[in-house]
Amino acid sequence: MPTILRVGPYRFFFYAGDRDEPPHIHVEHDDKTAKLWLAPPRLQESRGFNRKEINRIKGIIEDHQELLMDSWNDYFGQ
Q1: How far apart are CA 11 and CA 31, in angstroms?
Q2: Domain of 68?
Q3: Is the pTM of this model over 0.90?
């Protein structure tokens, strides 16, 4: 599970087994987790994050979209 980005309390990462899915990122903070598609950023699932936090996370993804997509492509060899 490589960590791609840390912003504030959020850790953004991939799972090695995610290769066969569209580009996405997992986010965790304490015991909360979420999975968001990268292009365009949109929520796939969330456990514990409220709507305000999800919107903040989406904004972080938008701000770092190029890094996240490049990291996805580098990691999964696309």
Answers
A1: 12
A2: 3-76
A3: yes
Give 14-54 pLDDT, tens digit per residue: 998 888 899 999 999 999 999 999 989 999 999 999 999 99
For residues 53 and 40, the answer to whether their CB atoms sit within 8 Å is no
Total tally of structural domains belonging to the chain = 1
Structure tokens at 58: 């989406």
Residue 72 to residue 47: CA distance in whole angstroms: 23
3-state secondary structure of 10: strand
Among residues 56, 22, 20, 62, the alpha carbon closest in space to that of 41 is found at 62
Helix ranges (H only) for the chain are: 51-63, 65-76
